[in-house]
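dude i think i finally got it to work??
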Amino acid sequence: MPDESLIVLKFGGSVLVSPGRLRLAVHEIYRWRRDGYRVVAVVSALAGKTDELIRICQSCSPDASPNAVAAALALGESESAALLGVQLDRVGLPHRVLTPAAASLVARGEPLDAHPVQINRSILDEALNDEGVVVFPGFVAVDTLGRHVTLGRGGSDLTALFIAEQLGADTCRLIKDVDGLYTSDPANSETTPSRYTRCSYNDALNTDGSIIQHKATRFAQKRGIEFEVGRLGGTMPTRVGANPSVTDDLRDLPKRLRIAIAGTGTVGGGLLELLEQLPEYFEVSAVCCRSNQMRSKLAQSGDRVESDLLSLPKSADVVVELIGGVTDSFTLVQESLRAGCHVVTANKALLAESGDSLYELASTLDLELLGSASVGGGLPVLEQLAPGNVRSIRGVLNGTGNFILERVRLGDTFDEALAQAQQIGLAEADPSRDLDGTDSLDKLRVLAQTAGCSVDVAGAVKQSLTRETAIPPSKNGSRLRHIATLSEAGLSVEVNAVSQDDPFYDLPGEMNAVEIEYLDGTHKRIRGKGAGRWPTAESVIADLLHLSRVESSRRVATHV
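look at this
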């Protein structure tokens, strides 16, 4: 399962209406990344930004040269790309923000309505191979003299299609604030018009151009590029191409799910904040937490607060378990499934101990038990595994331990590094599970379950991270890593020195990394932050959005 597929996603200003809404773009990028795609995210300026920059230019110099105006307008897309990079960094998803000049995206023609003609593909390929995600400003290019030019109003559509063609992308999806193309504008119709399942280039050109830039559609038609138009999280985008148009009355709308949350600590608090931005997808039906301060805060905001864990399934479609431990959490997950609720958990100890029986129960009841957040955080690894196709797994699976080793390498004492990890929320007050390898071993067991590997837990080798074992090597420039390994020899978590040619050598801070060897001899390497509020909360929200898509698809299938 090597990481070869490529999708180009274009996020327009109708989607990026504010800096905070960039989080929604992160969810979409993470969705495709965990499905095994490399991603190029092309972004427009935030809503209204281009018009604001035009007004500024006109007020400063009504006769400014077109290239000067283009340079000013480029600020909007540059801002969006940079801020999206910051948001991706927060959830620990590796990426590279490129500029049109850095990638040599050259366009010819009128400076404010130019046509792209070339790009340095090797720059994008290198970034995608290294990071997996590239963020690219749309609408803007440079001319043969290195001056700024733009691709016309709505030109980010053209940027996305041009990059998709140049890179040979598997898919190019233009993400809009609608769920596809319609025979007429739904906002201006008394009855809902028919929606295109497939739309011919000519029918797309017969629209008013407010959804897809006509210039981009003509480019796609000339080059024979098929592309998609749909919403964030969509499962049935309109496919635009050479084939005749097909319409139906189905809508690609999210299925709104009721979410009950057990636990509002570091991760739970982050999850609640993310859910607030997705009211069309989710309703928080109930919350159970131990903190009196949090209970009071939730009650004041109108959330239903429960004191009994087992009351949560009564008002939910999905129960999110974030309380940790294995006893109460097992009971909650089991009873939630029996009550007909899907379950999402971040509890690697629970899944390591009882995952097999709980997954079997969920399957019997035709429900889903999802635990992406139990391993990796911003490192979407479980989705890269399937039963019967994995030979070995090697990884740095504990962000806290890696953070400590890096701080010691840079000159801190072991105690100083541990205290700093606790101060910034990476380590618990009792860090023993992180340091003695138990956390990594639990994650390794979850990986083994997902890969369908039978393992001998009793025979696992486990080495603790201590003041002595964390002493940096004194020669050869090697670095220490707390490495978890699943192989034919069994399970192990050991402190090993790695050389500069090892994929785990350059692994700063709380980063995690995994190297998977498949039975066919291919390898996959993925990296991401493995600890902290936002990486873990992003994994949880990814599971919830997956369930929303599943339920939306079931609704459509039932309708059909």
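The longest helix spans residues 533-559.
im so relieved honestly
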